[in-house]
Request: fold
Amino acid sequence: MLGMYLKMGLVQMAGTRMYWETETRYSPVADVMPRNRFQSLLTSLHFVNNMTVSETEKKDKLWKLRLWLDSFREKCLQVVPEEHNSVDEMMIPFKGKFSRIKQYMRGKPNPWGFKVWVRTGISGMMCDFDVYQGSVNGIRAKSELGLS
Reply:
């Protein structure tokens, strides 16, 4: 299922249902499993057991993804950095309604989404990142990479 999701990133369409539609069918995704099964699995995907998480850990707005994010960041840090690097903000497009970290950035191609501070090399390869979580109880959260 995750492989299908990665394939969808290579051939982007307006919505996930379009990979199964007759006119826009994309065989490397649609032939693997039916659309309803894919959506059912996607809604039940969890990276952490909700019952074993402490209240302290739940103060992190990304606590449900923290294990995966930390693992992914470790892999990014293993990339040999190039001589010239850049740190900048990046938007991951998100149009959903229920998110406590969704940001609006005027002038971006995708103004609504998740703001991420990213360190990349001149080739565009990501070496490090930090997801911006906004303020915590009215106090701005400190980021390792950005100015927040």
Notes: DSSP finds four helices and six strands in the chain. The chain has a mean pLDDT of 87. The longest strand covers residues 112-121.
